[in-house]
Design goal:
The chain is of the alpha/beta class. The protein has two domains: about 5-285, Spore Coat Polysaccharide Biosynthesis Protein SpsA, Chain A (Alpha-Beta Complex), CATH 3.90.550; about 290-375, no CATH class. It is built from eleven helices and 17 strands. It has helices at about 45-50, 70-75, 95-110, 125-140, 195-205, 215-225, 230-240, 245-255, 265-270, 290-295, 360-370, and strands at about 10-15, 60-65, 85-90, 115-120, 120, 145-150, 160-170, 180-190, 205-215, 275-280, 285, 305, 310-315, 320, 330-335, 340-345, 350-355. The chain has a five-stranded mixed barrel with strand order 6-9-7-8-10. A four-stranded mixed sheet has the order 12-14-16-17. Strands 5-11 form a two-stranded antiparallel ribbon. Strand 2 (about 60-65), helix 2 (about 70-75) and strand 3 (about 85-90) form a beta-alpha-beta unit. The model has no long low-confidence stretch (mean pLDDT about 95).
Length: about 375
């Protein structure tokens, strides 16, 4: 089966502008979650780029980040052309970032097909992911489909949005078939409470909204024109200067602060009638907190997950992470601690109960307000 779009016409936009506050004290404003190494020996951003390189040439990979993080992005991905690292002057949520990415892709190829992917996901089954992405690229190149990759729920998670899917769709004319199953999207659902999430997970009709999108330049601009005319106008203006990075930066500095802050889900996905969901039949995790990291670390007999020189008496189900530089590491000894997170860096220590892991974000806010401590943010 020959795809209508070759690799030269495929683009990937990596969204890498988040702060990753829930992974404090390892994650900081200049080096947030996507730029740190928590699993393996590559950062999440490096892993995200490694995953798509078999499908897309490096010159067609764009990273959207912010001015504070752009130098570290360039340092971590030295082979990425300098102009492919695009720094937002201020954060304006995902619709603005998608619009900006589309303008840059369109300036390079008005027949281009692009995938928009987060920088901080854990996808151990790379080959399966690549198959789904390749099929989605092909389908998106053939018509007006807005494609999103949905993950089959493995638990009643309340931290994700859900998508209700319809019957499986037949392949387009002239295509023998895809290995990936595609469905029509019937409904986008906000993060549900537990009972509802349980109902969704058991029904088999819902997928987790993983925030991964594939569409052609023509399709995304038509979608913006119909549902977000202001964003469409901005896209047209940025498209005209996107071939000149200096001009683009100047225009963004002037216009971006006034752009509406809205997510792509709310701005476009929930309104469009041409959304198709690809079954993401691969292992996936949106690493949202220290608790989530525990799912990827080997536990001892008492359920403690440690990346540290760790010794304990009567401690159970803890996550212990030592991120100090090697010459400063010392043994971490624990007695009687249960269901907790203990993280040590060169300049800070975090101790939190697992049930309160989401409140690390509040702690970071408190640190930022303290004159003596804000340097730790």
């Amino acid at each position: 089966m020959k795809a209508k779009t070759d690799n030269k016409n495929r683009f990937v936009i990596i969204m890498a502008e988040g702060k990753g506050e829930r992974f404090w004290p390892v994650s900081r404003e200049k080096t947030p979650k996507q730029l740190i190494t928590l699993l393996g020996n590559r950062s999440f951003l490096q892993q995200a780029i490694d995953r798509v390189l078999p499908l897309v040439p490096i010159k067609n990979i764009l990273v959207i980040t912010n001015e504070l993080q752009a130098p570290e992005v360039r340092k971590q991905i030295p082979k990425l052309p300098k102009e492919n690292v695009i720094a937002e002057p201020v954060g304006r949520d995902t619709c603005a970032a998608v619009t900006l990415g589309a303008a840059v892709v369109g300036a390079r190829s008005t027949t281009g097909v692009m995938a928009v992917l987060p920088a901080d996901h854990v996808i151990p089954e790379e080959k399966k992911f690549q198959q789904v992405l390749a099929d989605a690229f092909d389908l998106a190149s053939r018509g007006q489909a807005i494609i999103t990759i949905g993950i089959k729920p493995t638990e009643p998670a309340t931290g994700y949005g859900y998508i209700k899917v319809g019957e499986a769709l037949p392949p387009p004319k002239g295509v023998k078939g895809y290995k990936t199953i595609f469905h029509r999207a019937e409904q986008f659902v906000e993060k549900p409470y537990y009972e509802k999430a349980l109902e969704y997970a058991n029904s088999g009709q819902y997928r987790w909204n993983a925030g991964m999108f594939i569409w052609s330049f023509v399709t995304i601009t038509e979608g913006l024109q119909k549902h977000q005319p202001e964003m469409y106008e901005a896209c047209q203006r940025w498209f005209k200067v996107a071939g000149n990075p200096a001009k683009l930066n100047k225009v963004l500095a002037k216009e971006y602060p006034d752009i509406k802050r809205v997510s792509i889900d709310y701005a476009l996905m929930e309104h469009a009638h041409n959304v198709i969901v690809a079954d993401g039949a691969f292992e996936w995790d949106d690493l949202g907190s220290w608790n989530a990291l525990g799912r990827h670390l080997k536990a001892d007999a008492e359920g403690n997950c440690a990346v540290a020189d760790f010794i304990h008496v009567d401690a159970a189900r803890n996550i212990i992470y030592d991120a100090r530089t090697k010459d400063r590491r010392t043994p971490i000894a624990v007695v009687g601690l249960r269901d907790s997170i203990l993280v040590q860096t060169d300049d800070a220590t975090l101790l939190a109960h697992k049930s309160q892991a989401q409140k690390v974000k509040e702690l970071v806010k408190k640190l930022a307000e303290d004159q003596k401590l804000k340097k730790l943010v």
